[in-house]
Amino acid sequence: MTAQEVRLCGLLLQEHFGDVVEKVGKHLLSSGEQNLRTVARETGTPMDLVKKSLCVLMQHGACLFTSGRKGPGSPVEYQASCERILNILRYPRYIYTAKTLYGDTGELIIEELLQRGHMTMSSTVKTVADRLTQNMEDGHSMEYSEVISAFSKLVETHFLQRCPPVAVVGAKTSTAPVLAPPPPPITPAATAAPASTAPATPESFKDCYKVPHVQLFGRGKRCHSSEDGEDQGTSKRAKLDPQTHGDEGIYWQVNFERFHLHFRDQAIINAVASKLDQTSSEIVRTMLRMSEVTTPPSAACTQALSANEIFRSLPPNYSISRPILDQYLTLLVDDPMEFVGKSGDSGGGMYVVNLNRALTNLARATLESVVQERFGSRSARIFRLLLRKRHLEQKQVEDFAMIPAKEAKDMLYTLLSENLVQLQEIPKTPDHAPSRTFYLYTVNQLPTARMLLQNCYKTVANLIERRLFETKESKRLLEKSQRIEAILASLQASGAEPEQLSEVEEMITAPERQQLESLRHHINKLDSAENQVDETIFLLESYISSTSKAIR
Questions:
Q1: How far apart are CA 121 and CA 49, in angstroms?
Q2: Confidence at residue 550, expressed as pLDDT on a 0 to 100 scale
Q3: 93-116 residue pLDDT tens
Q4: Which of 40, 154, 348, 363 could form a disulfide with 543 if both were Cys (CB 3.0 to 4.6 A apart)?
Q5: DSSP track, 100-155
Q6: What distances in angstroms separate CA 151 from CA 136, 198, 438, one per listed residue?
Q7: What does the H/E/C string look like for 31-88?
Q8: What is the 3-state secondary structure (H, E, C) of 493-515?
Q9: b vs e for 187-216, b when ≥16 Cβ sit within 10 Å of the residue's Cβ?
Q10: Domains (ranges, CATH) in the chain?
Q11: Who's near 207: CB < 8 A, 6+ residues apart?
Q12: Residues 215-270: pLDDT tens digits?
């Protein structure tokens, strides 16, 4: 784990959970596994706050606990998950994907589970139905059955999964095993929910995608404030017996790996559409959709599919004849990017999507675009040449790239100083004399991708810090704007006259209004930049992960 990753994780924890959780999380990331007393002592934080911070981290799957290294009876040790914390950066993308695939209901289900870490199905359904009912302007209420249907579809496509049961991690005696004691909860959702110590997989937890029969009937409720300010809908639901829905003790969480596989597939589809045409991308989309649940996450390619299976699964609005489909498949197989290939063990009649090869080519295109943006098109030409030819001397680079010797030399040294290009020495004699040594330039794609990934982490951290600084500088003006908006909403609800509303609106002066508009514009640009950099981060992480697995 690098310093840039720890820094970014700390900023994400601070923004979403506060300073105390950020201090505890960063300490665990930097120090590794530690027990409760050690964390409290080394961070200088009171024990009860450390317990609450660990509870928050475990509630969101960002902290794992294991039995002590000294055996049974030793203190439980906690370890923060850097990968899980970095997923917070991708929350808007998860929610938008759920909205695109399953509408507003799927969006709110994913949003609730991301916000609370994990919940029971019945609690999620009731909360989402109530929120949808509040958003309905025609007075209708959302049926629980509709939300249950959307929840079941998310589980069926593996976007949601059950939390595995908490493992037994130690015991004071051999006859009385005890569970690792999670810290006391600080949120209502954490009062009875188990903390997952490892991601659930069908191999490790056979009921990972088994939906229980939930006895839940009715509609979502509209919230009405009572005289003492308490939400009547919430107070009534709190009085309901929680043991009547049939899913007690079964908690659900977002399956981040499944979302990442969907993002990977979309990147491949978009690349095919950009390289070839829309019909080719639809064929690749069909192949990926047919094997999205059956293909293991670490597989180098999808399961083999025949042309007949692909033809039958194409969308009805694509009126492609079988001969045309065969021509498109041949075109995809012959394309230099090699997104689609023929299965080697099926006699040549079966087709697969080369996932690892596709990620490698996408990462290569990302590296080339970075070089072109930073150093110009000629440097990018040299970089592409070295990627293709592997090893070249300086004179060969000048000849192949058709660039004057002085310019080529300057560009090569610039790329070398930025660690984008490496220099390899091959001596003819044991004395390594310069006159009898070959100096070959090369590009090692995997180390270069790792370096660029660290630069991306640094960039996102800088963007977050800048956004927090902009918000802090205009804190007084933002609070004033929020107060005025609340007053306007209250007056509109009570049927105030337009004169009163305009009088309240004039409490914000023209310069203040202009400053607010400028702040919103800057914040939106920073948010957009974060999302764009995160797309590059995801692509590089996927390439590095797939390449590392292939090497092992």
A1: 30
A2: 67
A3: 999 999 999 988 999 999 999 998
A4: 363
A5: HHHHHHHHHHHHHHHHHS-EEHHHHHHHHHHHHHHH-SSS---BHHHHHHHHHHHH
A6: 20, 23, 63
A7: HCCEEHHHHHHHHCCCHHHHHHHHHHHHHCCCEEEECCCCCCCCCCEEEECHHHHHHH
A8: HCCCCHHHHHHHHCCCCHHHHHH
A9: eebbeebbbbbebbeeeebeebbebbebeb
A10: 3-80 (1.10.10.10), 87-172+184-224+243-254 (1.10.10.10), 258-353 (1.10.10.10), 358-443 (1.10.10.10)
A11: 162
A12: 766 666 665 544 344 444 444 444 444 446 667 788 889 999 989 999 998 999 99
Q: How far apart are CA 532 and CA 459, in angstroms?
A: 11
Type and span of the H or E element at 27? helix 19-31
Rounded CA-CA distance 91/69 in Å is 34
Contact residues for 186 (Cβ-Cβ < 8 A; gap 6+) = 52, 55, 56
What are the distances in angstroms from CA 106 to CA 123, 151, 152, 328?
Answer: 15, 7, 10, 35
Tell me how far CA of residue 513 lies from CA of 65, 441, 482, 506, 509, in angstroms. 50, 56, 13, 10, 6
Answering whether pTM is above 0.70, one says: yes
Q: Hey, what are 551's tokens? A: 């090497």
> Which are the contacts of 72, defined by CB distance < 8 A and separation ≥ 6?
170, 171, 172, 174
Distance between CA atoms of 479 and 512, rounded to whole angstroms? 12
